[in-house]
Amino acid sequence: MSIKEQNTKLIKTEAKRLGFLSCGISKAEFLEEEAPRLETWLKQNMHGEMSYMENYFDKRLDPTKLVPDSKSVISLLLNYYPSETQNEDSYKISKYAYGRDYHFVIKDKLKQLLNHIQEEIGDVHGRAFVDSAPVLDKAWAAKSGLGWIGKHSNLLTKQTGSFYFIAELIVNLDLEYDTPVTDHCGSCTACIDACPTQAIVDPYVVDGSKCISYLTIELKNEIPTEFSKKMDDWMFGCDICQDVCPWNRFSKPHNEPLFNPHPELLENTKKDWEEITKELFNEIFRKSAVKRTKYEGLKRNIQYLKN
């Protein structure tokens, strides 16, 4: 076994031990196929008010500009599919936000993985990324053979569907590279048909400015009236395109205690959410991604759903 193979095996074994669902590796290089796609998407204003998407165009497409001397992008998946979901009579929260904010949970695991690499392999430099820097997570995960990009633009795998987080370690270490897998969406249009705001404008193209997740989380202004009665009771995020995807029949509950929800999140009814106080909001979502909308944002969303 070559040194490269040994190092690759060591990294994948440790990733598994840390609880990652899977680990794939690709060469750190310019994402040629993604460049025109990203440019068109931005030109058509499909990013809405997410102006940060326009920044660092080059860095988004080339990890060597983000991490000097980088050789490999290590992509990792972490399952967040819950064993229990919310009360039927409730405003809904996207499943990824049930527990502790994933940024902290994953960053911690990535630090441990990088430390392990440095201890076992030596002087390796790298940076960890969890959806918080200009890195095209899904593109790298697909390039690393962890799944294919579905028609709803999420990463899909045959074994486990799409309810997982994607993260990367970009390192200055040559490793064995994985190859992409084939697309298994076929003629299915379940996600396109089910989206109440018709945000999936073409197969594989999502108009972010129409997406319920964008409207309830990213949009800081009032939600446009055109989406009235089309939000399907989602007050934070949306899982519709994932819930209807046939591949998610294979989702299995995660075993990360930090992703377990506050009991009230599961038990609350619509009435409870309508009456939520700032104190209770802070308690239920103390270390949750829901804090991104702030109390006022969540109240705005609930009010919009009520009308």
Structure, explained:
By secondary structure, this protein is an alpha+beta fold. It has 2 domains: 3-85 and 98-171, no CATH class; 190-244 and 261-306, no CATH class. Helix content is 35%, strand content 13%. The protein is built from 13 helices and 10 strands. The strands form 4 sheets. It has a 4-stranded antiparallel sheet with strand order 1-2-7-4, with helices on both faces. β5 and β6 form a beta hairpin. The longest helix is centred in the middle third of the chain and has 20 residues, at 102-121. The model has no long low-confidence stretch (mean pLDDT 94). Pfam families: Fer4_16, QueG_DUF1730. Monomer. It catalyses: epoxyqueuosine(34) in tRNA + AH2 = queuosine(34) in tRNA + A + H2O. Its cofactor is cob(II)alamin; [4Fe-4S] cluster.
